[in-house]
Amino acid sequence: MHYTTKLRVDPKGHILYWNSDMVVNTKDSGKRPLHAVASGQLCSYIFFEDVVDVRVTDEAEDDMKAQFKGYRYAMDIVTNKNFIEPRHNVFKHHDERLLLKWEAFVMRWAYKLKREYHGVTYYLQKVLSPHIYCCSSESVSMHTIIDVLSPRGSQSAANHKIVDDVIHDYPFREQTTAPVLIKKSLLNENTLADLIISACKMAPKRPRDYQTKELKDLFSRMADCGVLRAESFGTFLNETQRDPRLNEEAHRKVFAGTVKKLCRKYSTNQTDHLEFRGFLRFLLSDDNVELNAKRFQYDETTLSHPLSAYYINSSHNTYQIDEQIGGHANVEIYRQGESTVSSPLIAHLPLVLLSGCRCIELDCWDVGDDIAIVHGNSLSSAVSFRAVVVAIRETAFRTSDLPVLLSIENHCNKANQRRMAQIFIEIFGDLLLTEALEDHPLEPGVPLPSPLKLRRKILIKGKKTGSEERSISRSNTASSQLSEIAEVETVLEEPEPPLVPYPEVCETMPKRETSPGARRPTLQRGNAVVKNCPPPLRLRTLSTPEGKVSSHSHLTELLGSRVIKGPDLPWSQSPSRRFGMTIVAELNELEQSVSVPILRREPAPLRSTIASSERARVLQRRSETIDEDPKRLNAVQKNLEATQHKDSVAVTDSTLSNLINYLQSMSPREKEQTKTTKKYDVHYKMRSESETALEKGEFNWAAVFNVSNLTRIYPRGMRFFSDNYNPYKHWACGCQMVALNFQTSDLPMQLNQTLFEENGRAGYVLKPKCLRDPQVLVEHHSTRIRAVIPDQLEVTVIGAFMLSWLGMNEQFKSLVSHVQVGLYDMPADTVHHPSGGGKPRYCTPKGVEKGLVTIYSKDGSRDAPKFLFKEVVKPEYAFVYFGVVEHNSNKVIAQRLLPVHKLQPGYRFIVLRDSANRSAGPACLLVRLKVRHYVAPAAEVIAEQFEKPLDAIRKREELRDMFANPLEYELSKELES
After folding, report:
1. What is the β-pairing status of strands 906-913 and 919-933?
2. How many helices (DSSP H) and strands (DSSP E) are in the chain?
3. Among 120-134, 236-250, 957-971, whose mean pLDDT is lowest?
4. In the sheet where 711-714 sits, what is the strand order?
5. Looking at the domain covering 2-114, what would its CATH class be?
6. Higher pLDDT pick, 166 / 313
7. Which of 18, 86, 220, 434 has the fewest CB atoms below 10 angstroms from its CB?
8. What are phi and psi of 369, to 5 degrees?
9. 708 Cα distance to chain centroid
10. Are 901 and 876 in contact (CB under 8 A)?
11. Residues forming beta bridges with residue 869, ordered by sequence position
12. How far apart are CA 331 and CA 384, in angstroms?
């Protein structure tokens, strides 16, 4: 007895579905099904767009259960909702070749769908696919369809009202069968569009039932006797819906033949003209999407520039899946691994490399005689270095063959560094770039090679032996990390307990046990710095009525609330260093200096048995308080974060150093020299800086440096819970590798994912020309960039449709929302909330939800809110932001980011996305987009000639004819009229 499964794909390619039957061998028929899928019951399925990995493995015989004997090979199809919630679907078969064919097909099709953009009708077809193909019945209930569109109101009176409106609206009222049931064979694209039109009351029988009159008024202005002729429809496509920034020679207008085909495709009676319903069908279709997928395809011709000319998709602490201090680490962050998952850690991790990330970070530490990947010697769990390297090799080039960059944060001794180099060479083999290319030697003035020349190569970033890089030694780490923060030197009588080494490293190391409080320490932030002041203080054992008390206890009491305490842990687990800064769990009895960070918000009373006079003398001799000094506070944090990423070994071993070529890290001295050198031409040297390092004074210099050299930006050390920073200001000055925490689905990560949808999600996007030209000066508050024409963008938010699909909690009987609109560009024109909180400044009025439609109008006015971005300084890779916000909680429930330079203007249904940047269709916004080149009023005539050169030529010829023979010209005009 065993289970058999039949894998199927629906005709439209939306879902992979299957049903499993238990079968028993019999003498008569051989196999007999015992449990078939009941009529009307959905079988198992997954959406292709959710697939992130497929892997075929060969399982050992002794690992298989008895009923699966003979089914040696397993195919694991992995899906996820975001980067940290994978689900595994494992299928077994005895034929490996068959599974490999399935693997290739599913991966190819899934990633093809991820690169496409579709209209609202497509997404309704997608979400209904399980109800159409995973059920044996021939019809689907109208109630089922409406419940899918509005899951929040499932089986509610509101949904019943929508069903009643639909079945009494054209064309469903003309069905010969019961209108509450629709045959699956009739659910084509136009029928699904009609369902949306009727459910949202876009074209009701009674005009007073219109949810929005904007589209009806638009159609009435173009139509003739209620019909939109092909000529008028063509004018609409070539003027209202066309991007005026496109050159007419390179981007031709829609031909008359194409216009007629569109009319016949969407017309209710297959004629060469459109009724209002046919016009709405077109607006909801794939022929009217907000972005043209062809302009986002992989383009090999753009990959011949040096590496410094590209934005490179980069991650920070790639092995982490939650917060930084006590979070989990896992090899599966690099790829979704084996078909059988035995560890909870391995079961729920994202797929960074397969998503298109091309720069990942490895934080390497000594673990006895082995090497572990662990974050900063913190409480995070560790994973095997070898297992991570194997995972990188397996997935590095499955979805993109462009080079992978490994950022090594090296904390290992020389013996383990040699072992690291051996593992790299052994596992990567020919994939590892061990020497510079012949035509790109490591010499001054020679540019970096292009991604094409480094195709299917892995490069290592790190310090090079022989250069000036020397990082601090282990013995000096604690005293140098916090030079600006108070340091208390103690001399104690008790000997120091020995450190307990890490446990032996396995494929995935067990997380060290900690108390719940250890996972999230709270740091007190304030407005003052207590800094070091000599002379040192010697504290000895003191006598009290209760007896002798150790010095560290009295010192703790002396400092009182100024001491930031961590969790009470056993000595071997006390984290004296986290993120390169010292967090005092307790004043451990050390003979060396202990750095205590003290940032106080207000004076705190001292609690001690020491006399007040002695107490005052101690504090006066030992510390100096600088209050209300923001510059000093910023300097402390900046120096602290610059220190945290320094390697804790003296010199990189030569064996590992020999593997480093085009990604050589600069020393601090070299970084300072580049700022004073007019032209720095050592292009294989690169900077690695914290997010806070890019101050206004360095923006201009960094923009010049990044033309020919690489820069990697990483989050500041205080981001304990893996939140992200806004990457846009770093992109604006040309930083190539802006590393983010992929495990966190927030707005910065959504910006990153939107940017790297370009070029087929291959991980490399060509920077704007102004950031690749050393002759162009890009300043922090630039309002003009030479050779860059600004854009002007106007956004009209008409309404939102099917927001209930977003799955709000059932406690919301109706969703009260508003829409935020923002812009991400150069600092001069980036539109944020005036409070500086990072929220977009422009907001619609509070919306009114009527059924599946939400209208955002003020005080009952029919005028839709408009927002004008008068001047977009750098349109290329500027992004316009739409956020649907629950009005009462101010929580963003859906969002969408669109690149300004590739926007398709006109009336568009913008399909929304969730926090993980996955499509939330059919939920959408209806907007009117107007975009054009910004020009001064005096230059509008010249700009029009550039936008429409053919019209300009015709006008020039007419002007010439008029002056050559004015009488004949006037006569010809009269004859034409």
Report:
1. antiparallel
2. 24, 36
3. 957-971
4. 383-384, 370-373, 359-367, 404-411, 458-462, 660-665, 685-690, 711-714, 737-738
5. mainly beta
6. 313
7. 220
8. -95, 10
9. 26
10. yes
11. 793
12. 8
Which two structure tokens, joined as six digits, stand for 437?
Answer: 């290319």
- Point out which residues pair with 78 in neighbouring strands: 53, 88
Contact 739, 715 (CB under 8 A): yes
Least confident of 34-48, 108-122, 567-581, 944-958: 567-581
Q: At 187, list the tokens.
A: 């659910």
Q: Does the pLDDT of residue 640 top 70, yes or no?
A: no
C-alpha to C-alpha distance for 336 and 251, rounded to whole angstroms? 42
Tell me how long the chain is. Answer: 977
- Alpha-carbon radius of gyration of the chain: 33
Instruction: Provide the sign of the torsion angle of the four alpha carbons 714, 715, 720, 724, taken in this order.
Output: negative
In angstroms, the CA 827 to CA 695 distance is: 12
Is the separation of the CB atoms in 216 and 205 below 8 Å? Answer: no
And the tokens for 870?
């008068």
Residue type, 492: L
Q: Where are the beta strands (DSSP E) in 368-414?
A: 370-373, 383-384, 404-411
Sign of CA dihedral 269, 270, 273, 274: positive
Q: Determine the 3-state secondary structure of 681 from DSSP.
A: coil
| CA-CA-CA-CA torsion sign (878, 898, 724, 633) | positive
- Structural tokens at position 824: 């991400």
Nearest to 49 by CA among 15, 19, 17: 15
List, in sequence order, every residue forming a beta bridge with 508; answer none if it has no partner: 383
528 alpha-carbon distance from chain centroid: 36
Percentages helix, strand, coil for the chain (3-state, rounded to 5) are 35, 20, 45
CATH code, residues 307-428+456-463+658-771: 3.20.20.190
In angstroms, the CA 644 to CA 636 distance is: 12
Q: Phi-psi bin for 809: left (phi > 0), alpha (psi -120 to 50), beta?
A: beta
Give the global pTM. Answer: 0.77
Instruction: Report the first-to-last Cα separation within the chain, whole angstroms.
Output: 87
Classified as helix, coil or strand, 96 is helix
Tokens matching residue 939: 């230059």
Higher per-residue confidence, 276 vs 70: 276
**Distance of alpha carbon 977 from its chain centroid, rounded?**
58
* The pair of three-digit structure tokens given for residue 60, joined into one six-digit string: 């050992």
- Asked whether residue 760 carries a pLDDT value surpassing 80, the answer given is yes
Measured CA to CA, the distance from residue 733 to residue 750 in angstroms comes to 20
**How far apart (Å, rounded) are the C-alpha atoms in residues 540 and 550?**
8
Give the DSSP letter string of 609-644: SS-HHHHHHHHHHHEEEEES-HHHHHHHHHHHHHHH
DSSP H or E segment with residue 416: helix 414-428
pLDDT digits (tens, 9 = 90+) for 315-356: 987 555 544 444 445 455 444 333 333 333 333 334 789 999
Q: Say which DSSP state 163 is in.
A: H
Domain 791-934 adopts which CATH fold? Immunoglobulin-like (2.60.40)
- Secondary structure (3-state) at 596: coil
Q: Where are the domains of the chain?
A: 2-114, 307-428+456-463+658-771, 484-510+524-644, 791-934, 940-976
Q: What are the tens digits of pLDDT across the range 32-80?
A: 343 334 334 678 899 999 999 999 988 765 555 555 667 889 999 999 8
